[in-house]
Amino acid sequence: MNGFILKQVERTETAAVYSKRKPEWAESAAHFEVIRIRKRKQEEYPKGNIIPAHESFPSTESWGALGFSYLTLTEARNRLALLTCQAKQAS
Predict the structure, then answer these.
(1) Partner of 58 for a Cys bridge, out of 67, 78, 81, 83, CB 3.0 to 4.6 A?
(2) What is the pairing mode between strands 38-40 and 54-56?
(3) How buried is residue 18: exposed, middle or buried, by Cβ count under 10 Å (0-12/13-18/19+)?
(4) Residues 1-20: pLDDT tens digits?
């Protein structure tokens, strides 16, 4: 992903926290991405190509609504808790 290393730090059924850093950065220099997990259905294209069902990161256009960036793990975990709570209330 644009030369960044992403590592899943924490996950719930509906959201996840990833650390994000460049290879040349120290581990302690990582910042954090919090995403609402998007589940995609299998897609079949006219020429017969099939993309199996999978999970994906939010698009660039939906960042700020489905994806968030934070400098600290504490801030990221707070957003994870909020997203998880919102998903439970919606179901």
Answers:
(1) 67
(2) antiparallel
(3) buried
(4) 678 999 999 999 999 999 99
